[in-house]
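Design request, tokens follow.
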């Protein structure tokens, strides 16, 4: 539990009495920003190397992946319950019956008490929203996490996201109106953006009916279009030190509504793929530094919102 902000652990405690653990799944979804439906080439920071011909066919079923995850945690915590986290690619993209079948396969696994679904803001059909709403009405935990990334449309265009900020507002609003919890995924330090742009995004997010937000630093990954653009000098990205990025996070916390739980502040790509930033810190080490800075600076979530 943190003193300066409402974290994801606190958020889960508001929904569940005992221990709950997310288990990530690759259910074999694809991405409409690559196959021409929404765009081609994908987001410029997205790692092409993971998009091999086999990426749509994970070797293990949803139930097998969940069972494997459960075995890992159940040894230490026999009473643990689980949330199936549909994480890889666009987990609302495809034929409705297929999508519903995958969600129900997850919910049919013993101990699984809910779904967290990662997707794009331009990819939430009404039929699926109605289905998720019916799950909620039956008491199933459902959180849809949208890749919002930034509120600036010129940046979204520059990184080839293939959707706009208005798409994000529409998706979050429709989803929350259907009684489903929504989350936003945001990237700090996108090309052309600085800390003040992130603050502006935080303030706009604060006006939306969001339950959670996830923040992470832009990571320059080998083999991506963005890495090529930066190496050629066509684009410039921020090279924050860890101390500078902690300052960015503090401003984010001050400018995000306390009604929105903050799930995380960093992400860590595999070492062999990461170009920058190379801070050499594990996520928990970063969190310890951030928490110290929060205490030292008496940071309070949403205090700058007035
Ligand atoms: S980041 Fe997500 S939406 Fe963008 S290309 Fe990669 S999988 Fe598709």
């Amino acid at each position: 539990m943190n003193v300066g902000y409402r974290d994801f652990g606190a958020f889960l405690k508001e929904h569940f009495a005992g221990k709950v653990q997310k288990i990530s799944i690759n259910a074999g979804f694809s991405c409409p920003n690559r196959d021409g439906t929404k765009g081609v080439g994908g987001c410029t920071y997205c790692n092409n190397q993971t998009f091999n011909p086999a990426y749509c066919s994970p070797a293990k079923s949803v139930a097998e992946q969940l069972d494997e995850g459960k075995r890992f945690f159940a040894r230490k915590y026999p009473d643990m319950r689980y949330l199936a986290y549909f994480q890889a690619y666009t987990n609302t993209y495809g034929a409705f019956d297929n999508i519903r079948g995958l969600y129900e396969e997850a919910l049919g696994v013993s101990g699984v008490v809910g779904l967290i679904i990662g997707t794009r803001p331009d990819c939430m059909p009404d039929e699926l929203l109605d289905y998720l709403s019916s799950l909620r009405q039956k008491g199933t935990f459902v959180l849809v996490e949208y890749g919002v990334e930034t509120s600036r449309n010129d940046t979204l265009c520059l990184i080839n996201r293939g959707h706009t900020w208005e798409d994000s507002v529409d998706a979050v609003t429709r989803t929350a109106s259907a009684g489903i919890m929504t989350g936003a995924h945001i990237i700090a330090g996108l090309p052309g953006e600085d800390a003040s742009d992130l603050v502006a995004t935080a303030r706009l997010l604060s006006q939306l009916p969001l339950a959670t937000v996830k923040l992470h630093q832009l990571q320059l990954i080998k083999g991506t279009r963005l890495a090529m653009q930066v190496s050629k000098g066509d684009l410039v990205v921020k090279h924050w030190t860890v101390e500078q990025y902690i300052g960015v996070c503090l401003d984010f916390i001050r400018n995000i509504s306390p009604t929105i739980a903050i799930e995380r502040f960093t992400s860590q790509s595999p070492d062999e793929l990461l170009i920058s930033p190379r801070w050499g810190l594990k996520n928990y080490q970063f969190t310890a530094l951030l928490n110290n800075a929060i205490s030292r600076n008496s940071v309070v979530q949403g205090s700058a919102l007035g």
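Comment from the thread starter after seeing the answer: thanks! The beta strands are 20-25, 81-86, 112-119, 141-149, 181-188, 212-217, 220-221, 261-264, 274-276.
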